[in-house]
Amino acid sequence: MTLVIINPNTSTPMSERIGASARRAAHGDVHMLTSRHGPASLEGHMDEALAVPGLLERIHECEQDDSLAVSGYLIACFGDPGLAAARELASVPVLGMAEAGMHMASLVSARYSIVTTLARTLPIAERLLGEYGQREHCAGLHACELPVAALEEESDAIYRTLLEACRQALDSDASDGLLLGCAGMTDLATRLGDTLGVPVIDGVTAGVTLLESLERLGLTPAKHHDRALPLAKPIAGAFAHLTRSDA
Amino acid sequence: MTLVIINPNTSTPMSERIGASARRAAHGDVHMLTSRHGPASLEGHMDEALAVPGLLERIHECEQDDSLAVSGYLIACFGDPGLAAARELASVPVLGMAEAGMHMASLVSARYSIVTTLARTLPIAERLLGEYGQREHCAGLHACELPVAALEEESDAIYRTLLEACRQALDSDASDGLLLGCAGMTDLATRLGDTLGVPVIDGVTAGVTLLESLERLGLTPAKHHDRALPLAKPIAGAFAHLTRSDA
Amino acid sequence: MTLVIINPNTSTPMSERIGASARRAAHGDVHMLTSRHGPASLEGHMDEALAVPGLLERIHECEQDDSLAVSGYLIACFGDPGLAAARELASVPVLGMAEAGMHMASLVSARYSIVTTLARTLPIAERLLGEYGQREHCAGLHACELPVAALEEESDAIYRTLLEACRQALDSDASDGLLLGCAGMTDLATRLGDTLGVPVIDGVTAGVTLLESLERLGLTPAKHHDRALPLAKPIAGAFAHLTRSDA
Amino acid sequence: MTLVIINPNTSTPMSERIGASARRAAHGDVHMLTSRHGPASLEGHMDEALAVPGLLERIHECEQDDSLAVSGYLIACFGDPGLAAARELASVPVLGMAEAGMHMASLVSARYSIVTTLARTLPIAERLLGEYGQREHCAGLHACELPVAALEEESDAIYRTLLEACRQALDSDASDGLLLGCAGMTDLATRLGDTLGVPVIDGVTAGVTLLESLERLGLTPAKHHDRALPLAKPIAGAFAHLTRSDA
Amino acid sequence: MTLVIINPNTSTPMSERIGASARRAAHGDVHMLTSRHGPASLEGHMDEALAVPGLLERIHECEQDDSLAVSGYLIACFGDPGLAAARELASVPVLGMAEAGMHMASLVSARYSIVTTLARTLPIAERLLGEYGQREHCAGLHACELPVAALEEESDAIYRTLLEACRQALDSDASDGLLLGCAGMTDLATRLGDTLGVPVIDGVTAGVTLLESLERLGLTPAKHHDRALPLAKPIAGAFAHLTRSDA
Amino acid sequence: MTLVIINPNTSTPMSERIGASARRAAHGDVHMLTSRHGPASLEGHMDEALAVPGLLERIHECEQDDSLAVSGYLIACFGDPGLAAARELASVPVLGMAEAGMHMASLVSARYSIVTTLARTLPIAERLLGEYGQREHCAGLHACELPVAALEEESDAIYRTLLEACRQALDSDASDGLLLGCAGMTDLATRLGDTLGVPVIDGVTAGVTLLESLERLGLTPAKHHDRALPLAKPIAGAFAHLTRSDA
């Protein structure tokens, strides 16, 4: 069995960073995939909207591939784009990294702060807090104003900017935990946590351990109601190849 | 100035029905467009996800087209797919038909019932009620279990099924208004209202009058925060042509 | 058919200003009425309470007047005084200007600020936000501390005070829209919008276009439950003439 | 010092019943007043709206009357009409009987049921539950469909109808307390409680003991913000005599 | 009949102070008890957890004592520790002092501030606000950072520290009432209220008058559902003597 | 490193059952402890209150024991008794089994049902749903009316009763997942899941995998605010031995 992690943006360096971090957290195999369609980074509603079909294409391919025994999928972008759609398509659990990170953060802190990339993405995180029942557990949402692309590679300047934003968030929120709001921050969590003296949660590694937990507990979704397979029907245009064979 | 109405599924008969209804409601011009990409009907999360890029492509084309003076866009599917993304892209107001219908229903009834197509779409409508602040104004969400495709053409059997579902909803909810939950029901609202003796609201025509109201009041969006234009960046694959020219 | 707009305070200059603004927004006829009973301006709970019977008397007169074909009523005070009572009495739609303005503001901005007159009225607006499902759409409630009476006539000093309050509200709330919180501000919306670069919504003109939308869509209330006609019973004292003829 | 209880409808038999019940609950003096203006019973929004000025007139008279030392006012109608306005006008505490009853019910039961008169008044009680923070403490709202006028005099038939409605409410809600939703039920609470084996709370007597508690604790309102005295300004028409002398 | 007030911490000076204040507020008898088990002051979750069995032991003793006719119990610590458990055990009403104080504060102020002891107890008060439906009535929660032990005896320095914290709370919250968040502050309420010009509510005296109100109204709990007597079963260890005789 | 699981009731057969199930779920060591104080089963508020000091005593012992390297604590009772207090005392993560089960259930189902033991415990679970942000994820709370003691040993009759209650819950709630509401059900989850075709979540095993996830991610609590160590102070009576050595 293997975990599949999908980077819904099209940046390969970002995927490498995510994959390495995920493998360090996993007990079992990790299969890292990158979307072939959409923006190089996701920093807004349209970026996300354009990224989702490529993400679904990847899940569709995995579901068709008999050589793969997928135990679960993780969507490695903090906006959890396409999560509900992916859950229709997949026969095994699917988690979003914001979902994973928020739940995990609530288990180890009374009220956590979130530090994400650009301010324009804050309403996306705000909506997710509501959806996952986390409004009262989150003490504050902050942007460090680093673009996602800046997080593709390691850099000391980047680390210091992020560290400073984290410090300010902890201060202003009087919080006792930090959730990082971008997949590109995944391998900075431990270093930040050691420096800041509070648990620093990253959604990628949180998602890996949660999916492995679900596998260990033998929990698979029921495919009922709005999580049943998409109905068979013609699909036109760019993603016509995602049409069900029985449509 | 012209209103642009976009059917985000790829069914032309459906678009014709929507366009005719919209024109009856409008004071001014209506430009009716159909998406070129995605499923023939939208009845779930994946259907919607695959429909959104084609919808955005249509808005992108209108925004580039100097021969068009668009006063506003209406997304003619009750799940309001792609609404937030469309609002980034467009320079003028964008409404979803669920959004329009829910607000209008709350103005003319104390508590309205919603009757939509398949039960699997109910969680989508439920989420929208929350987003638009309508949870306390909506008395109940109901599915008539007609597939969207059945609503492409007029039919007496279809009307009777829908009428019966509406009657049951009014009874069980003790409500005083009905909101129809599919663009394909747009031209049945008046007939249903005459029979049922309560206001029956349709989101397509509601959206047309609301967009014309915004135009008359001279209200255009500020393009700030998460409604600013999408950032310039490379877009790969199927929708690469939506890349901003300055990216 | 004519729209009836009722100023529930007894200031005729205010009514003239409201009527002129409403007529500019309307496609059809506007009938402007002023209450004969109550305070000269409404700036608190008691002011509103004393104004409501006079407002209801006006609606009662219109409903009895066979020479009038009323398509809808608008209550032109930002506290929406007497709205629920008016909806019992009237056979056609009734809107409050706060209700109209809040809904319209939510359609054209992500999160709007409200700037109203005196701070003592803020709890009234706060309650209305809750009633109309607008708590999450409103970014902040602000008082410019101009009394309503100051808004009876045009004045540059008044405009500059209001402009400054709007600017501060937009800054402190990081909002992308403004809703004006007094009927006396109705004709300043466009000028403020042009200066501030965000949509500035006025509830009077918003209400006019919404009532005309309801008329165009053929939507009339069902007169059920708590919107049924008031029961026939004796009414004593000052408003005995509002007793139903069958009581 | 005396408590003032005001019946905001104009029915003297009702006032006598309320006054007798209040006197049995009070340690000190009770001054029972009836409004001179408005409907003979309050069963809807318009009934309430027309009753409020008469209620305020009574409070105004008491405030002007140097021979009276009022310790607090109780509004003896379950819709708590005019409560916010009365709090502006009065220099001492004002309670509504629904407010008093709901708070007291939450102290002696885990989840209480409410049984009121006509179904058309349920939305009024529903709104008050929200305002007083009682939505989660109330297990259900029920109408016994007795008009208020039927409760003016004692009658066995009336008692049995009410008893049956209470029984059904307790059953269907699995609740452990009952709140009576009409001032006309005030003297039936004890008898109902003895029969039903759960605490049966009446807002009139609850209000009397709460106002006496406030007096004993020396707690008087601060007259700040929206509870400050109404501003001095001209009042026209029927209630011109309520104009402040300094206006 | 006598009221029983239980100090759930083991400090006798604190109990004396509470008892004296309670007796000044009460019409009838007050029986003041101190727990024999647990911390000398309650300033956190563990302090409270260790205090609850001793509190329950006291109630158990009173319930067994045929020489006592208890009309109600008051838990005299602002965290309301053990309230739900006490309600199972007792045959008469039980109130917590935070519960009593919050309800009373909401009756005499539009929005009250709370000033309590140490910041680490704020989440406890925050949870209680939610439980009692008081989130919207409370304008702010503040710690004066005085430990509970400092409040065992009267002292001018203590009074001035508390006064200053109250002043700041009123200012920053724009509130019109103050609720004191510690039983040790019970006899400072009147002096603070006289100085500050707003009602200052203390939960001990509020609880006394509320329990006496319940007694006067003849309201006793129904002992249903989660307020039924604890089930008969063996209890091991330190509190084995609380085992029901029929277990 | 070892996980410590504490059964807060005093039933050793129950602990054996819990321990065996936990060991099957764990990668690492599991140390199973039983409380020495309190009721033999926890089925109400008082049962829980009496159980908490014994639970805290166990954590205190582990924290003092240098031979133990504890990675986390799990409270193995569905009411999560003493969770906040335990978090003050412990230097490593503490989870409640309801908390663990609810979060895990929300990851693998859209809306889950809960089936617990006696109806009198439902308000406890209801409160926890609110605390953990799970109100909208839980579709319904049900009691199978089996006492906790019946779950100490395996039995076919017990299994069938529980199975039937689960079936009814899934039907009436239209849910797609089940959460078991008692530690004594821990080893029935897999069998129930296989039969029912939906994921059946057990909080004990969920808690084990979540604590191991936190360990793997290196996340430990910050010991700030209301999770800081209890203050040093004298503790009297039965649990005096829990007094801090520096008090």
CATH architecture of the largest domain in chain A: 3-Layer(aba) Sandwich
> Structural class of the helix and strand makeup of chain A?
alpha/beta
**End-to-end distance of chain A:** 30 Å
Report the order of strands and helices of chain A. Answer: EHEEHEHEHEHEHEHEHE
Share of residues in strands of chain A: 15-25%
Average pLDDT of chain A = 97
- Helix proportion range of chain A: 40-55%
SSE topology sketch:
The structure is a homohexamer of 247-residue chains.
Chain A: E1 2-7, H1 12-25, E2 29-34, E3 38-39, H2 45-64, E4 70-75, H3 83-89, E5 94-96, H4 97-108, E6 112-116, H5 122-131, E7 138-143, H6 156-173, E8 178-181, H7 189-196, E9 200-202, H8 203-216, E10 235-236
Parallel strand pairs in A: 1-2, 1-4, 4-5, 6-7, 6-8, 8-9
Helix pairs in contact in A: 1-8, 4-8
Protein name (chains A, B, C, D, E, F): Allantoin racemase
Pfam family, one (chains A, B, C, D, E, F): Asp_Glu_race
Family (chains A, B, C, D, E, F): Belongs to the HyuE racemase family.
